[in-house]
Amino acid sequence: MIAEWKKIEKKQFASVYLIIGTEDYIINETKKRLVANILDAEDTDFNYANFDLDETAIEQVIEEAETIPFFGDRRLIIAANPSFVTTEKAKSKIEHRTARLEDYLNEPVDYSILVIIARVEKLDERKKLTKLLKKQATVIDAKRPNEAELKKWLQEISNTNDFQMDSVATDRLIELTGGQLTTVMNELDKLMLYKLEERIIRVSDVEGLVVRSLEQNIFLLLDKMIALDISGALSIYYDLLKQKEEPIKILALIASQFRLLTQIKLLEKQGFSQQQVAQKLKVHPFRVKIGARQAKSFSYQELTATLERLAEMDYEMKTGYGDKAQKLEWFLFSLQDQKQKQVK
């Protein structure tokens, strides 16, 4: 995918692109690069068209692609949601004359670039049109990268921009952003801008500059709890309160994370790999990796008992029983006491 981006920036365009996947960052960046390198600012209004195939028939898209450019060299035509090559059910009753697309794929015009975006994990490979489309188009994979792919990607982007970022800083950047690609890339851009003169990104830069989400602060809070660092856990908790986060919301996220740990523990007992757990629970693989690490510090019985206690606290908070902020403080202390007894 990065190789295709480089070709686009060198103005080495394919006649037809097929983007397959659900990762918005890759889809949006590909579109942005195509627009920037194909169209001049003054002819965008005349030579750019964007269609939703749930609302527009494919033959209309092809007609647009076959229209000669107006005041420019090329036209850029983007069409999303091609249900006729997926297993997804169409959202409308529009009938597509896909034979027009087949004809176009076999003989595309040289003055238009057609981009078809399928926001699905994979196409319906049984269909003849799918095979033809994949054969004739330049395919860009917009799937969510796994951790190893993401690390390699970050290193490559850093090197391309003449920055140095070691593996410790890379790992920390991924951890603090939860492995979410759009967030990772936004934070990397910010880090590169901040370190523009030195061009070295250290783990201290990552920890000092990367904005943590509420969910990420909860992960870190649990890490502190598991490490019996009660002062560290309370520091994060008090910071969240200063940011006007409601104790009941913090409690809900803590409960959600313990629920995830319980599910991971159960599925790992049944022999599921972390990748399979992520697919089964429909959560980001990086969350499962962190959760699996945290779950090792608890037995299944401890996790279920903690969930019961959190449910009781949730009920007490919602019914106005006791001080909400103080309840979570005592929960942190009680969890530490529980873990210290185990160590002894």
UniProtKB/TrEMBL annotation:
Q: Which UniProt keywords apply?
A: DNA replication, DNA-directed DNA polymerase, Nucleotidyltransferase, Transferase
Claim: Transferase is one of the keywords in the record: yes
Q: State a single Pfam family of this protein.
A: DNA_pol3_delta
**Protein name as annotated:** DNA polymerase III subunit delta
Enzyme superclass (EC): transferase
Q: Which organism is it from?
A: Listeria grandensis FSL F6-0971
Q: List the catalytic activities from the record.
A: DNA(n) + a 2'-deoxyribonucleoside 5'-triphosphate = DNA(n+1) + diphosphate
Any one GO molecular-function label of the UniProt entry: DNA-directed DNA polymerase activity
Domain DNA polymerase III delta N-terminal: residue ranges: 17-143
Family as reported in the entry's similarity comment: Belongs to the DNA polymerase HolA subunit family.
Q: Which GO terms describe its biological process?
A: DNA-templated DNA replication
- Residue ranges annotated for the DNA polymerase III delta subunit-like C-terminal domain, each copy included: 215-334
Task: Please list which residues make up the signal peptide.
Answer: none
| UniProt keyword annotation of NADP present | no
Q: What Enzyme Commission number(s) apply to this enzyme? A: 2.7.7.7
Output the Gene Ontology cellular-component terms. DNA polymerase III complex
